[in-house]
Amino acid sequence: MFSGHNYIGFTPGSQGEKKLKVFSTARQDFLPEDFSVATDDEIQVATEKAAAAFDVYKKIDSDQRAAFLETIAEEISNLGDKLIQRAILETGLTEARLTGERARTMNQLRMFANLLREGSWVEAVIDPAMPDRKPLPRADLRKMLLPIGPVVVFGASNFPFAFSTAGGDTASALAAGCPVIVKAHSSHLGTNELVATAIIAAAKKTGMPDGVFSFLIGEGGKLGQALAKHPAIKAIGFTGSYKAGMSLYKTATSERAVPIPVYAEMSSINPVLVLPEKIEASADAVAAQLSASITLGVGQFCTNPGLIFVIDQPITETFISKLSNQLAAVPEATMLNQTICKSYYTGRGKITHEKGVKTVFLGEDAGNSFKGSPGLFEVNAIDFISNNDLQNEIFGPASLVIRCSDQAQLIQALHSVHGQLTATVFGTPGDIRDYKDCVNILVEKCGRLVFNSVPTGVEVCHAMIHGGPFPATTDGRTTSVGAEAIKRFVRPVCFQDCPEDFLPDALKDSNPLGIMRKVDGVYVTATRFQEQEH
Amino acid sequence: MFSGHNYIGFTPGSQGEKKLKVFSTARQDFLPEDFSVATDDEIQVATEKAAAAFDVYKKIDSDQRAAFLETIAEEISNLGDKLIQRAILETGLTEARLTGERARTMNQLRMFANLLREGSWVEAVIDPAMPDRKPLPRADLRKMLLPIGPVVVFGASNFPFAFSTAGGDTASALAAGCPVIVKAHSSHLGTNELVATAIIAAAKKTGMPDGVFSFLIGEGGKLGQALAKHPAIKAIGFTGSYKAGMSLYKTATSERAVPIPVYAEMSSINPVLVLPEKIEASADAVAAQLSASITLGVGQFCTNPGLIFVIDQPITETFISKLSNQLAAVPEATMLNQTICKSYYTGRGKITHEKGVKTVFLGEDAGNSFKGSPGLFEVNAIDFISNNDLQNEIFGPASLVIRCSDQAQLIQALHSVHGQLTATVFGTPGDIRDYKDCVNILVEKCGRLVFNSVPTGVEVCHAMIHGGPFPATTDGRTTSVGAEAIKRFVRPVCFQDCPEDFLPDALKDSNPLGIMRKVDGVYVTATRFQEQEH
Known about the structure:
The structure is a homodimer. By secondary structure, chain A is α/β, with parallel strands linked by helices. The first copy, chain A, contains 16 helices and 25 strands. The longest helix of chain A is centred in the N-terminal third of the chain and has 24 residues, at 95-118. The first copy, chain A, has a 7-stranded mixed β-sheet, sandwiched between helices. Chain A starts with 5 loop residues before the first strand and ends with a helix. At the A-B interface, helix 4, strand 7, strand 8, helix 8 and helix 14 of A face helix 3, strand 7, strand 8, helix 7 and helix 13 of B. Strand 22 (446-451) of chain A pairs parallel with strand 23 of chain B, so a sheet runs across the interface.
């Protein structure tokens, strides 16, 4: 069922002698299949093919690129239950979760296909010539976004579909017109292989060039660094640990002749603010929502709420104990891989020794069976503010409550919070008025601000921002989920007095794509531009 | 007439004992005034004021920000002739050029004011809630661009108005909602001071917070590095040398706890492709246009054409000699400052010793009087391809002709060209068809592709891209001129289920700003959204 191949463009590659096996935390053993580590030569050929494919792929029109993305979705669907069953084995996630994630992944591909067909995402802007302008005539100037070139995507362990081989980074880069080389995540190599074959089948069916997609297997940083340093690579999409993300960022910004952008989503502990009136009115409901969010997917979400800020009042103790009871009722569950499980228990252990940290609840250590159990800790604001280590991500079902004496102290504590993917406010309308300054601080800290619901659950839509200030990501100007994710893999080019023949369709006078464009500072459709200019 | 002060927000500061004087290449002597180097304490207070001002300034509505920008333009206009006269003394540029540049600078401020009033630049996107969606309801999600925080701007020597104190970086950062700290360029400190006082007068008149603008004087890298490392600074705008730009890039990406974006426009030699039919048809005209462009402003433009690619044919020799004659007719003229003049003659001298380089024309060395004279060199494609040093920018009125034997060699030579602000094609329609592959290579190399006119002259408009792949800039995804420049100083934030009260105006249901927004994937005006949703 598994070949263990790399895919060097359309060509399977297994030249390497070194093989990897996947350890299944669900089965508590290695799975039998061998996966072949890419050789230096295979890496080189994949990058060359990507560079050559770029010249072809960037010129393929939006409709065909859209068809490619939709066919990938179909091919993933065609993999059927064997994909889900393999992913269960390799990730320990549940069938329900994986089925949902697969649907999300296919919808994401289709969303980008729709975005391509709609077409305005290229931000076409036209300033027509003004030959009679005084003192100087104006040239005809037209700009649009064009693809940046071959992109390397690093799959994440915690979303074997949605942030992996055919996940958001791959979908948005392919949509933008960039060939993709995926570095497979070694925790779910079989899942990766199945999805890679789906992408390749789709590329062949829709006539995409060899090299538009490659799939490489490697150990730790070696393959990743080789790709990040390669001159043919023009951007990197990454989801994973702070350490690995920063290592890629360092390489991309300081160890290349030509630096490239790195979109690394790394580390977020997603502060939650539970405000006084809300806690009085709905302690049970908020505790239940937070407990469910903290333990969702065994806490292995980048949007997992890791910090909970409360103001000391009579009900605070009750709220914390309700939350603790809720967490205590959640059974331990299988984690994604050995490393994550070990790090979780190490992180959970460390925090109990930090100054002022009190353990509220600690589920039994089930690390021997690779299962994670919940943990809840508390600390006062002063100790929180003075100790940056309390902001190290503990990836798993644990959270830290920060007790603040009053709003002034809460403001200080929030100022000390690092950049985050999300921040959440539980508050009544009165709370939000009274604590406006606190909520405004959170706006500065995050990419998405959630009101009265939990941060886990990232909608794939036009308005989504799944990004945020450092260290949540290396580039807080972008998102890795939602339609705007495509903007990471493009750059603007301006054409001055360009002959109509040579202009890209998006910029032609006749607007053959029928897209919305900004003409002389005004957003217009085809008709309006034609009326104005002809 | 000159106080020699720094401006720490609204407060003049001259605590430092160290003073600078401006050397006037026009007068060939130091000008009498002393300018005070900012002390560490003044730097610190300026950044603190910028951080505090950000909290106020970001909430000031677009109309008021627009009025601030327009008032800066008025105050610059009010400086009258003394500004022009001082700039002539400090830069050696002509009155006509400086008057034009001042108009451009004021127009740029007004363009951003108009952009703010129009309002759609914030890219408001709304995906309304779908409470009944199956299997899961959708939350209400709304995103827009918000200002990033205090920005440091490094003025350039060659545009004392348009890329300096109130230039494009300052205008776009202030428009975005970011306070600005300008590091004055030491070659035109008097000009800077006048413009700084205009900005401060405008800030006071329009009720902007103290700290929205500061103005600091310093030597070489010391002040720049202190600002680039400061935690309160969230982005850097820079125009200048490769060395200085890369030093800021290194600091910003690897020597800060939190990396920040650097928009450094550094080094571009702007390749020009003169194609066979065109050269046959219009050798005189093209030679005249190129000569004028090479020597415009004594060649001190970032878009100066430094590489001219031709294909060997009978007329090539004639074309080169026409160009040489044209250049020989251009008199030497005063350069911006001593360093630039010295570097120009050093660079011009060095290139004559590079392998295969032949001097076509060399104007007399007028470095003793700080004047630059034109130079023209030629080399064959093979020597060009094998020697990266031929792509070092020679900032001044010099250019290198690359002779290619045929299209295949031209393609190779173009592939070896580094990233550029601009690339230019002189070609008939037939040429452009025949050399399509060459033109396509240029698209990959530049931010702006010019057809049948010269790259100097950068229009301030909606479609302008004044940016390009490294080493032209450190961030080829952006522009430093034109409306899109504002996007450098913002980041997207998504609001999930946010109460109407707390939503920024751009995202409120009622669309009080009346801006175009993307609602459920469709671009709509206020009315349409209201019709759809209410």
